[in-house]
Amino acid sequence: QVQLVESGGGLVQAGDSLRLSCAASGRTASSYAMAWFRQARGKEREFVVAISWSGGSTYYADSVKGRFTISRDDAKNTAYLQMNSLKPEDTAVYYCAAAQRRGTWFSGNQRNSNAYDFWGQGTQVTVSS
Question: What was the pLDDT predicted at 30?
Fold first, then answer.
């Protein structure tokens, strides 16, 4: 099993940037595909971005494409979400997730929360207008 801990959230103004971190412990992060999801108040959790085991493949929600970048540093057991040009509609709790089932994940389930086996507790991102 792996434990995931997010950090880096906060209150920023529209147009600002933030970098979220997801630190993995208990098992090496390289054993998992990693993703970020978010949940705004009163809304369902939605996919934001995912990265494959090797880091060679990434998947983005249309709403963040060109503004957000996912990366991973397996030597540090950490995944990152660089968020630029933040908008008020990006306000949400951001969750880090890890997937260990390669077959499921690569079968078109990169954006499906059910493909992820482990979740962090979330970090709040608030973007003021």
Answer: 83
